[in-house]
Amino acid sequence: MPEFSKGLEGVVAAETQMSFIDGQQGVLEYVGIAIGDLASSSTFEETVYLLWNKKLPTQAELDAFTKDLRANYDPPQGVLDMVKGMPKDAQPMHALRSLVSALSLFDDNPNANDVPAAREKALKILAATPAIVAAFDRHRRGEAFVAPDKSLGFSANFLYMLNGEKPTDAMTRAFDICMITHADHGLNNSTFTARVVISTLSDLYSAMTAAIGSLRGPLHGGANEGVMVMLNELDSVEAAEKYVQDKLANKDRIMGFGHRVYKSKDPRASELQTLAKQLAEDTGNMDLYDKSHAIEVVMEREVAKKGIYPNVDFYSATTYHCIGLKLDLFTPMFALSRLAGWSGHVIEQLEDNRLFRPTTNYVGPHGVAYTDIANR
Ligand code: CMC
Q1: Active-site residue numbers?
Q2: Per CATH, the architecture of 9-219+342-351 is what?
Q3: Is residue 307 within 6 Å of ligand 1 at its C-beta?
């Protein structure tokens, strides 16, 4: 029997050329480029091109890719009609999961999963999903949908469709950095989910839908909402000490801390910390940043020795709040970006597929007599 590894910890289950993580040294690279360099110099469009093509684009290649993305900003009308029929109190992640799934209903050939077809579908899903999230949020607010503006980049267009006004350059850049830093991250749970689904030679829509379901969990992408809830529970910066101590004493988890892979500070957390601080200053939200930092100081003292440090979700909460996003849109933002990583991994899986089919250790009884229902 192969060795049992609970949670598949330590098991190498796929090969990728997209992202490299050194959890001890706190390194994350996309196709060999440090995440900090991409955060400071790249755009989300360029980063997606890099992940999907394993090289930085020339200007002509980037222009062509951007043009393709913009041409696909509009979701099918049928999907927008579905948004209008959704309960206004539905949770955005459930709406998003259902609507990404529904995109397949408007595709003439949804099952095509040769690599060129998968790449085309990946582009269409990535391009149209911002409009879906924005439409759902406007629907629940009773506001008319805002059509995409194809003169705008991915991030500016999303914020425009959400708010009905063009974002400032600073907000656009901040949001773009969030998109870059969340785009891919090795074989995280949702990415693994996407690869598992496509390994049956299912379709891209099914893989993306399943991945969104995985991302929603509080141990994964849902943690950024949990961080904001925690920050809101703190009356003051000074309250952080007792709050964290009480949680640790009760063996509760502090959201936004710890990682299966990183045993040092997540490099994305460092990038987002700088961004969160700047945005908090600019938008009058320094109390949020200060509370976050106070929590980090206590955690550093109490649990850093166990390898528990801030992860990507910790400072993304303050960042998204300062950008003006509602709490329950934080995880959908993660999904908007991670669609790039999921689809890149699905393409890699299709290029060299082997059905995922681990095994179990059966630990139940054997030889049990079947008892008639009347005698149980
Ligand atoms: N707060 C307090 N203690 C923690 C935390 C935390 N956030 N995370 C881990 N620990 C402790 C845990 O209690 C355990 O202690 P002990 O050995 O005394 O029982 C030890 O650290 C190891 O925990 P684990 O659950 O075996 O570690 P894991 O590798 O399975 O957990 C994790 C990884 C992300 C699920 C976990 O750190 C966690 O629950 N964090 C909070 C949720 C969170 O922030 N998730 C976002 C992850 S990063 C972005 C993403 O993937 O989407």
Answers
A1: 220, 259, 313
A2: Orthogonal Bundle (1.10)
A3: no
